[in-house]
Design goal:
By secondary structure, the chain is an alpha+beta fold. Helices cover about 35% and strands about 15% of the residues. Helix 1 packs across helix 5.
Length: about 325
């Protein structure tokens, strides 16, 4: 591959043209402080039974190990916010905002593929020989071996708050992240995370977490996190924690909802596939969930959304907990 004339400015404009709300470019170099924080987090067992996170520790900390000849990291962001209705029907369980519409992995995956086609067209315009795009670009949406919030922070997309979320000046933390590593030698953004604000002395997210999952600034113990418990955890949820799950059927938005920066910056997503009407909606009837008798019925309800993750047994477990909590509260 000869030296390309394609610039970071062009890449970012192509990303915006494709529909991404945020785009920044940074170096693939290891961020030592982030790698050490991640190592300590794993040592504390805060990843619970998500063994794959420990298995890919080195690759998550070093983007250069993900592709031969990587020279740049393109970080992408997509606003997914939708507001809650004033009331929720009795017997329903709440679905986290990120999962109300279509599965974001698929939505963003399609967008990245479209972006790469545009990049390829631009590269060909510059008469650069790049016969195998797959060798020069690799991408992930959330599930890949990547400390994405740290690299998004360095790329100028936001700062990492006390709740561990990346907080952006325009959209708060209601943002999906994705990344492309590439052999293109792009210019890096010289950004200051403080441009997006700071938590300062505020600790509303820490105090509001019902299960005490935010154990220190930016450090989450997944073993106590409602999102982990209702989505990734496969066995029974301890009674002490189940009682604190409230009406959260799938995921939890509490630490984001109480954030003053989020309250000021929340903006309805412009991406229709992410809206509740395109998926399962804001809440689900727990009684109907418990009456689902087959995997086929479960998939009819959840196919194409993130709610397939806990499987039928996990979603039924969550529905029973929500109904028990509502009975206790009445």
């Amino acid at each position: 591959m000869r030296k390309t004339e394609t610039t970071s400015t062009e890449i970012k404009q192509l990303a915006y043209d494709t529909g991404f709300d945020l785009c920044g470019v940074t170096s693939p170099e290891i961020i030592p402080a982030a790698a050490e924080r991640y190592r300590q987090w794993l040592q504390q067992g805060y990843h619970a039974d998500m063994a794959w996170m420990a298995a890919s520790q080195e690759r998550r900390s070093d983007p250069s190990s993900l592709m031969e000849g990587v020279r740049s990291v393109i970080m992408l962001g997509l606003n997914y916010y939708s507001p809650n209705a004033e009331t929720m029907p009795v017997g329903h369980g709440r679905v986290s905002r990120y999962a109300r519409g279509r599965d974001y992995h698929k939505v963003i995956g399609r967008m990245i593929k479209a972006l790469l086609r545009k990049i390829e067209t631009t590269i060909n315009r510059d008469a650069v020989v790049m016969p195998d795009m797959a060798r020069h670009f690799k991408w992930w949406v959330d599930y890949g071996p990547f400390l994405e919030r740290t690299y998004a922070e360095r790329a100028g997309l936001g700062f990492i708050g006390k709740n561990g979320m990346l907080i952006n000046r325009s959209f708060g933390s209601w943002v999906f992240l994705a990344e492309i590593v590439t052999s293109l030698p792009l210019e890096f953004d010289q950004a200051d995370p403080k441009d997006h604000g700071r938590c300062g002395k505020c600790r509303l997210c820490i105090d509001a977490c019902p299960t005490g999952a935010i154990v220190e600034d930016g450090v989450i113990d997944a073993r106590r996190c409602i999102s982990y418990l209702t989505i990734e955890h496969r066995s029974d949820i301890p009674a002490e924690l189940a009682a604190k799950i409230g009406d959260n059927l799938f995921g939890c938005d509490i630490c984001q909802e109480v954030c003053p920066l989020n309250q000021k910056r929340a903006t309805l997503t412009a991406h229709h596939d992410l809206l509740p009407g395109k998926g399962v909606g804001e809440s689900l009837d727990c009684h109907k969930l418990l009456n689902l008798g087959s995997r086929e019925q479960f998939l009819t309800l959840t196919a194409g959304t993130a709610l397939t993750r806990p499987k039928l047994d996990g979603l039924k477990r969550n529905a029973r907990i929500v109904l028990d909590n509502q009975d206790q509260a009445s």
